[in-house]
Amino acid sequence: MKSRLAIAGGRPVREQMLPYGRQTIDDEDIAAITATLRADYLTGGPWVGQFEAAIAATVGAQEAVAVNSGTAALHAAMAALQIGPGDEVIVPALTFVATANCVLYQGGSPVFADIEPDTLLISPASIEAKLSARTRAIIAVDYAGQPCDYAALHKIARRYGIALVADACHALGAEYQGTSVGSLADINVFSFHPVKAITTGEGGAAVTNDTELAKRMRAFRNHGMSTDFRQREMAGRWGYDIETLGYNYRISDLQCALGVSQLRHLPAWLARRRDIAATFDKAFGQYPIVSPLKRCDGRTHAYHLYVVTLALERLTVGRDQFLQALRAEGIGANVHYRPVHLQPLYQQRIGTCAGICPGAEVAYSRIMSLPIFPTMNQQDVNDVIQAVEKVSEYYAV
Ligand SMILES: *Cc1c(COP(=O)(O)O)cnc(C)c1O
Q1: Helix (H) or strand (E) holding 47
Q2: Is the pLDDT of residue 1 over 70?
Q3: Which is nearest to 319 in space by CA: 272, 384, 268, 364?
Q4: What is the Cα gyration radius of the chain?
Q5: What ranges make up the beta strands (E) of 236-301?
Q6: Is the dihedral of CA 22, 23, 24, 26 positive or negative?
Q7: Which of 2, 196, 282, 294 is catalytic?
């Protein structure tokens, strides 16, 4: 029997909207920030280095450069690789706009590669088809938290002598064949926005084993200065050289103290995300209308997002209407993402148009992200499943 949808005046599955993601903050996090407020340095102090060391240790890489957003980390990566006018960087079409914007910041040209239809990860075959004599780098995105096909990506990068950057903003804590995301590409970028695996409010990091790239990114976040304020103070010097153009992309000690405190929880939070995903998989695994994405062997998933595809041929409505109905039931479903090449900025600036990445365009018409975050309780998880089933049954052909 079909029950009346909340969008048509029926009773919603839940009264309070469940967001698709949210942060977890405990008393220790709050104590870490308040203690830092009483310390000598609010920014440029010891917490920055401690947070960087903790991130590097977590992912098994040599250096982490912490900055004030994941976007700034992507920009720093492009600058360190000396991307500039005339250079092309291949990015997946289905990603957050920052993955492509960072190329534009440097005056380079993003070139959009298509995605695999079952995982929504960047397609190595499409990358090969989009390579040119001007290609300088690939930015791969571990979409939803599942690592890309790094073996295939490395093979391409090595064969053509170009850099591999991982936009790993979804994938802190994931692994590819036993190696942590964060030590798989030449530069690996994380975000600490509140919906991500851990948060610093706003924040990000670029992680690398290359000391020269790390040095350039450290200067880039601080106006291009080769030393920071505290280093000069300790050396009793006041002068500095500006040899390259940088920005103020510094992250504060308040944020880094929070980041160190948050990292304690990463293993437990990942485990909880995986538990929730397993419950969804069980509920939707055999379901004809809503299907989870494919998971690949040898990769562990960080489940930043739990993305499903809708079997539109079995529904009387499109994705947008389905999503609105779910929201009316109190489930804050979302879409990640509108393909970047369809954004007006890209159509106007670099002349992209519909049809250049058909896989991403088809996926976009069918995908939806369901709520997943560590503090969701069993009732929240059940509400999501119940609402998806309610809306699916109502709109089933
Ligand atoms: C969150 C995110 C970013 C940017 O991170 P901010 O910290 O919000 O600047 C970049 N790429 C992807 C894929 C993301 O999900």
Answers
A1: helix 46-59
A2: no
A3: 364
A4: 22
A5: 290-292, 299-300
A6: negative
A7: 196
Task: Return d(Cα 37, Cα 111) in angstroms, integer.
Answer: 44
Tell me the HSE value of 259 on the side-chain side, using a 13 A CA sphere. Answer: 34
Two structure tokens written together for 213: 């790239």
Distance CA 176, CA 213 (A): 23
Q: What is the mean pLDDT of residues 56-72?
A: 98
Residue found by looking up tokens 């079995």 in the block: 314
Q: Distance between CA 311 and CA 388 in Å, rounded?
A: 13
pLDDT score at 206: 98
96 lines ligand 1 (CB under 6 A): yes
Instruction: Cite the beta strand spans of 114-239 per DSSP E.
Output: 135-141, 163-167, 175-176, 179-180, 187-191, 204-208
- Work out whether strand 187-191 and strand 163-167 pair parallel, antiparallel, or are unpaired: parallel
The DSSP 8-state label assigned to residue 135 in this structure reads E
| 196: annotated active-site residue | yes
Q: Is 18 in the pocket of ligand 1 (CB under 6 A)?
A: no
> Strands, E, within the chain: which ranges?
63-67, 88-92, 109-113, 135-141, 163-167, 175-176, 179-180, 187-191, 204-208, 290-292, 299-300, 306-310, 367-370
pLDDT in tens, 301-346: 999 999 999 999 999 999 999 999 999 999 999 999 999 999 999 9
Phi/psi for 396 (5° steps) reads -65, 140
Which atom of ligand 1 sits closest to the CA of residue 74?
Answer: 10
Largest CA distance in the chain: 78
The pTM score is 0.97
